[in-house]
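Protein: Transcriptional regulator, MarR family
Species: Cycloclasticus zancles 78-ME
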Amino acid sequence: MQTVSTLPFDHGISTSLAIIVLLASRFGPHVQQKTLAIEAGIDAAALVRILDQGEEAGLLVRCDVPNDRRSKAIKLLPKGKRHASKMEATLKDLRFKLMGDVPEEDIETTTRVMRLLEERCQAYLLNGKTDQK
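Structure follows.
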C-alpha cells in the first residue's frame, strides 16, 4: 500500500482515503470496518476519521451489520466504485512496469508466501501467538 501513496491518482481525495476506497472495493460490498483497519494497518479511531471524509465526499456509506450492533460495514457508492476502478487501472500499469518480466508462477508463489506471512503476523498481533510451534 505504500506504493499507492506515490502514484498520481489526482482524484481530489487523500492518500489515506484512496487506500480505504481501494481496499473496500477489493473486499466487496459490506466489508467490516475492523477488516479495513487491519488491512490498512491503522487504528480504529483513524479509520473513523477517514470514513467520515469518505461519506462527506459521497464515496461510501456505513451500514449496520445484522446481528452485531457494535460493528459497521462499508459499502462503496457509485462515485467510490469509479475512483477504485481508476486506481486499479493505474496500479495494473505499475504492476506491469515493475513485474512484467517476472514469470507468473513466481509472482503467484511470492504472493502466496507473503499472504501467509501477513496472516501469521496479524494473528500474532491479535492473539500474541501463532499456530506454528
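Remarks: Residues 102-133 form one domain.
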